[in-house]
Input
Amino acid sequence: EDKVVQSPLSLVVHEGDTVTLNCSYEVTNFRSLLWYKQEKKAPTFLFMLTSSGIEKKSGRLSSILDKKELSSILNITATQTGDSAIYLCAASVQITGNQFYFGTGTSLTVIP
Amino acid sequence: EPEVTQTPSHQVTQMGQEVILRCVPISNHLYFYWYRQILGQKVEFLVSFYNNEISEKSEIFDDQFSVERPDGSNFTLKIRSTKLEDSAMYFCASRGSYTEAFFGQGTRLTVV
Output
């Protein structure tokens, strides 16, 4: 059965801390790994990672994929209260149908 | 910026009633999805739709559910006879070829 696992399930940090969120996947026909941020409603897209070892960055957020270890990490540096959200990772597979298998998410709370 | 729009944002319905959730995907996208998220749980795949037909569906997507693309722009999810356990946030998503999925803001369905 295809599976995406995220850790930790929840995390509470202080503003300014750096956090690392983990995602591991076991899917057939893997194509890419996606990270989403979910605040009150819909997941909003952060990164799509296709190639192993190439870091993607957007401001204080960065992510990298390790295809050998079947995993990805999402780093957030100098966290702010606005970073508080659930971070979802999803594995995209190379078939026409269900393209995205989601993990349960990591709930990040940043306290002032 | 193009976006996926969903209506209504919140729907309350009585058990046994039919509901239709509406989505307008991003124009020129070819792949359409419905996901749901029960409060506190993971995002679950319901169905994918491509080339005017269902390409894959999950176990959740039983005979009570149906999808349609009635006019080439809207993409609807119908639940024929709602049950209490259908209460969830329903997300529509669309994507182009080899792109990430864009999610709508969701419809919160409450079955009473």
About this structure: Chain A touches chain B through 21 residues (CB under 8 Å). The radius of gyration of chain A is 14 Å.
